[in-house]
Design a protein that fits this description.
CATH architecture of the largest domain: Orthogonal Bundle
CATH topology of the largest domain: Muramoyl-pentapeptide Carboxypeptidase, domain 1
Number of strands: 17
Order of helices and strands: HEEEEEEEEEEEEEEEEEHHHHHH
CATH class of the largest domain: Mainly Alpha
Length: about 350
């Protein structure tokens, strides 16, 4: 056949046919065996997985793999290198169905085959609840004030797979002076399964309602604060300092919570007080702050009772002196006499000790 004698449009058709044949031949050589002409295998045999606790995921690890390929031709070399399996859903339950979702083939003839997962083997598994244990934080308030925000800490376990807490803590009813249980209220887990994926353990906390100072006490404290302000305004800072140091010691019926609020407010408007040296038998609010600082940094004033964490006092006694000596000895401060002076304060500032109040 002489292409020169063919009509123009016939010549175009012949050329297109030649191009198509070349492209088809290359495609077949490169991809034919693994795409349009691949042989479909099915999966036989069996497999097993291990029971486990809920983890918020559907993926399962195959414990024993006895899977086989059905439909391999002749002496072809092809086998399963790796198989993956998934739960029907992530939630807890017995006899949960686990299915094969993917296999990776290996062998010199693996490229000839694809895999169908229709009617592939399945197995069952038990998914048990995960543990999460929380504890309500203890809170305090002055009688008549609104309740503080109730909070909690995770003690054991935790939430998994993007699950979250929802709801709020509550407390036993009552507004009199005393202690009340902080309860679970509506606190629960949002896990898409009504919280049933967790063994939720809740430890109650305590709300302590302290007595509001009597009108007489408030009158006395108002008088002292007024005198305090006058002393600062006229520049008599030392006397004002002494008055501040004596506050908690002289007026025990005023709660420590209100004392802290009062002096916090005064500090914002009047500025910081001059820091004084402290030693045995001194009293003052700064003594209490020193005890708090020592306790917070594991130089314990007392393990229980007065001076223990949460029960700090305004009296600089032998227990405070010993705790301060322990701090000084631990940091090679000499002399380690339990005297709170410029050297010790300077060292505390230099290491950024937690709880400095000056």
């Amino acid at each position: 056949m002489n292409l020169k004698t063919l009509p123009f449009f016939s010549l175009i058709k012949v050329k297109n046919a030649i191009v198509f044949f070349i492209v088809f031949s290359v495609f077949f050589l490169l991809f034919g065996a693994t795409s349009a002409f691949a042989i479909e295998l099915t999966i036989g045999g069996d497999f097993s997985v291990q029971n486990r606790n809920y983890n918020g995921d559907v993926n399962m690890m195959i414990e024993q793999n006895n899977l086989t390929l059905v439909g391999v031709e002749g002496e072809d070399v092809v086998s399963i290198l790796l198989a993956t399996a998934e739960l029907e859903d992530k939630n807890v339950g017995e006899d949960k169905v686990v299915s094969i979702t993917n296999v990776i083939l290996v062998g010199e003839d693996a490229g000839k085959y694809t895999v169908s997962y229709l009617n592939a083997p399945t197995t069952t598994v038990t998914i048990s609840q995960a543990l999460v244990s929380v504890s309500a934080d203890n809170k305090t308030k002055i009688q008549g004030n609104v309740d503080p925000e109730f909070t909690f800490q995770i003690i054991t376990g935790g939430l998994l797979g993007g699950d979250t807490f929802t709801g709020q803590l509550s407390r036993d009813p009552g507004n009199g002076v005393g202690t009340y249980n902080i309860t679970r209220g509506t606190l629960s887990v949002d896990d898409g399964n009504n919280g049933d994926n967790y063994n939720f353990i809740f430890q109650t906390g305590t709300l302590t309602i302290n007595r509001r100072p009597s009108s007489q006490s408030r009158s006395v404290s108002t008088s002292v604060i007024s005198r305090f302000e006058n002393l600062v305004n006229i520049g008599n800072t030392q006397t004002a300092q002494n008055l501040k140091n004596q506050w908690a010691h002289l007026f025990d019926d005023v709660s420590s919570e209100e004392v802290s609020v009062v002096f916090s407010e005064r500090a914002q408007t009047q500025g910081d007080f001059e820091v004084r040296d402290l030693k045995i038998n001194m009293t003052g609010f700064d003594v209490r702050n020193l005890q708090i600082l020592l306790n917070k940094n594991n130089f314990i004033v007392a393990n229980s009772g007065a001076g223990s964490p949460g029960n700090e006092t305004s009296f600089f006694g032998p227990a405070t002196q010993r705790a301060l000596q322990n701090y000084q000895q631990a940091h090679n401060i000499s002399p380690a006499s339990g005297y709170f002076g410029q050297i010790t304060r300077g060292h505390m500032k230099s290491i950024g000790l937690d709880g400095l109040w000056w």
